[in-house]
Specification:
single chain, alpha/beta, three-stranded mixed beta sheet, 8 helices, 15 strands
Amino acid sequence: MANPFQCNYAIICRIPDSFAQRSVGAENIPGGLNLQKAREEYDTIREVLKNCDVNLIELQEDENYPDCCFVEDCAVVIGGTALVTRPGHPSRTGEVGEIRRVLKQDMRLVVKEVGDAKATLDGGDVLFTGKEIFVGVGKRTNALGAKAVAEAFQDHTVSMVEIGKSDLLHLKDGFAMAGREIMAVSPGIDVAVILKKMQDVASYPYKVMQLDSREAADMLYINGRLIHHVRTEMGDTSYGELMKLADPDLERHEMKIGNLSAGQRVLSRLLVPILKLKYYKHIISSLP
């Protein structure tokens, strides 16, 4: 059986100077984010992805869009189908154009659009478990956006989950896949309520890895490998839970990315993974 988390390409984007002071969440950090450290951590993630057999399509940063490095919100790609999103924050709507061009012209995927002008959809609200899709409806994605996901990926069961009353900006701020049928879950009563909703509508059972911080639950399962934070950033308890539930033969990559994440989820936000079965041309970034 093919691995649903397999990919051979991923779209990423460099971090702009404006990220330090104007990105969402930067206002909560005195003095703003450390741009140099954030870029160093980005470079580390980029190298780890390459070591996980991912060919990178690296986009040039755009100073007009401080959050442009978080490309996940601009597209959802499952199988050979890509859905270009309609971001829920006005400051991010201009980011989808270059992503659309790459998906259509370079990758030559089947590209679908969110048709309803009243719909909002962030990719961070779309959790693909490898078997089904959950869409969080809340601060950045509305019911019409969730409907667009269901229309685009009709081969998968799509369940809408209300998250608006929680403090999650996106569904995937609370949940990540840590392996086949293993779901890493952030702490909190609100997150527990959402998990119960997901379990009530799920078509398949999942092992739950309950972790004690959102940073600890920030994981990326890709090409049979698991990328996660180092123990000092996860904490001893969460790191122990990971060691207990993760496949002992699983190849893991630990990295220190506390500045770039600022205590939140960041790993999946930095890429749009793509499985391309036919290679039309060489499109790997030549950016220095």
